[in-house]
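Weekly modeling sync, notes
Attendees: S.R. (lead), two postdocs, one rotation student

Agenda item 3: backlog of single-chain predictions. S.R. asked that every request posted to the team notebook include the full sequence so nobody has to chase files. The rotation student volunteered to paste the first one in as an example of the format we agreed on. Action items at the bottom.

Example entry:
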Amino acid sequence: LDPTRQGALEHLILQERLDLISLHRIKDLVDRKWAAFGRRQFVKRCMGAIGYIIVFLVAVLLPRSSGVRSGFELLLVALTTRNTWFHVREMRMRGIRGHVLRHGVAKLQNVSSLACMFSILIVIWCRISGGSVIDENAALSILSLGIWFNLLWVLLGFRITGHYVIMLYNMIISDMGVFLMIAFVFLGGFSTSFHLLGVDLGQGSRGLLDQVECCIAAMLGSFELEAYRLAPYRRLTTSLALIYVVLLSVLLVNMLIAKMGDTYARISDEADKRWQLEKARLIWSMERSMAVDERACKTCVYWVSVKGKRYLQVEEVDREHWGSGR
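Predicted structure, as returned to the notebook:
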């Protein structure tokens, strides 16, 4: 019950040992924990996540002059504070680095939770300092994303949706990360060149940030050649624009799609093992968030005690023997 002590299951989770997580004994341990307290804790968190969304929607959709809205806004702050305390308690047990740099899909939950915390702080500051409604709504828009993205953690607990959440996470972390680093090189080079060549993007706008914005739009398919033809060095600017579109919009984007296809195939081959790993990580996270006395209650016990030591009681069945009629 010592939260600072690393167990065998925690070691497998942190090392991401897919070869061991599917062993019968490990799966039996995960299933025992799930039956003892995991399912109950998961349902509570699911209801909490859904309730969080309902409170948020009521708090932002009602008129600002409504007293009901004020009550739901206070409830929203209370729920966010409770969520913040949960993360603070986990950081005290694991350290800030261990909490922020968590492995697997749990990292997305941490990012969305941090977005919720800072957004609420900004909203409170806007209310206290008399900030504009526009600034407050901008913070609420970030809060909305954080709240809804928290549902990915809920979907992770179900086998039918957990596989897709895992694939999405791996594509974002591995494929998109590499793509953005390579695209940044081309984006920076071509946008600076277009800025120096004096490409007019309309309404007299020739700023570098406007060029970056236009290059990103071109990468997504919104490209007009007319602005580049009107530049002082018409042939050079047009040639660079066409080269940029071919390199980024055609070559790199299609390479990204092909890489995502490879990732999907690789994850699909070991989808069940990865989901078992994430389920074990889910149970481990919920177990660590429980108080010591809560984990020690009789309904959460999944072991037997013999002379003060804990053991797992297992049952082996020789199906071939009993199935043979001997």
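Discussion: group reviewed the output briefly. The CA atoms of residues 55 and 76 lie 6 Å apart.
Action items: rotation student to repeat for the remaining queue; S.R. to check formatting next week.
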